[in-house]
Amino acid sequence: MKHILLAISLFVLSACGGGGSDGESPNIDNLPDEQGLFTLQNIRFDARDYYQGEQVTVTESRHFEVQWVAPTAEAYRIDLYLSANGAAPSNNNKIVALKCGNETFSLCPNATGEVQCSVDGNSLACAIGTDSLGSMYFQEKDLSNLSFIIKGCDALNNCDVKTFNLSVQNDTGE
Per-residue DSSP letters for the chain? Predict the structure, then answer.
């Protein structure tokens, strides 16, 4: 009888995924673009709140800070994109891909994250402290038609995308 109960227990546990955790973080590298329960909050540029679709004005050759709050401190992903002429976010216009949340991700270890970015000539680059995160060159001569896109996804494939119109002003030497 003990052998039958043991066999049934093992069968039930294997059908439920083994019944335990191996302690590893969920794989968040290949998450689909599904909208869901994950909502980015408090998107800020230079310590000022902005909402979906609003215009953000930055000065060429000067750093600006981008902050966000995710709905969880568990593992999540943040991707930053620079889009010209309404192009959808894709690997072609991705600037940064960060794994965040959870104490194992040292660059953004909790629900609140921030990066510093700058537009210099036809390039947008982002960093955290002295760690360069990525940059992207763009061919647009009219810098008033750019979009800065923030996409966050959790480990359960829930994603949120926020788009901001990015206006780049010339540095007047102030």
Answer: -HHHHHHHHHHHHHHTT-SS--SPPPP-TT----B-S---EEEEETTEE--TT-EEEEETTSEEEEEEE-S-SSSEEEEEEEEETTPPP-TTSEEEEEEESSTT-TTS-SSEEEEEEEEETTEEEEEETTEEEEEEE---S-TTSEEEEEEEEETTS-EEEEEEEEEEEPP---
pTM of the model: 0.74
**Per-residue model confidence as pLDDT tens digits over 64-112:** 999 999 998 899 999 999 988 778 888 888 999 999 998 888 888 989 9
Give the list of residues 6+ apart from residue 84 with CB closer than 8 angstroms, or none: 93, 138, 139, 140, 145, 146, 147
Gap between the Cα atoms of 165 and 126, Å rounded: 17
* 59/170 Cα distance (integer angstroms): 6
